[in-house]
Amino acid sequence: MPAEQSEQPEDLGFRYRARKGGEVGVTHRGRLAATLRGNQAAEFLAEARDPTDPVAQQLMARLTGNYKRGNERLASSHPRNRR
To answer: What is the rounded distance in angstroms from the CA atom of residue 25 to the CA atom of residue 66?
Structure first.
């Protein structure tokens, strides 16, 4: 089981599908999160060969805007979140 647990955090739930015309559809947990076209799609396909690769997962997260924004520490000290 430890091997399975170490694999879980690396998979962020992103997948992609190359479409006709050079478009790439990026999905997050089964829902369309972004559509890449043109140079951005070509660069993405060159970098992300395996969708389950942790590097590809992070790349898709950055492209869709679904990643940590750096303000997580500040949120804990906000008056609304103090208890």
So the answer is: 15
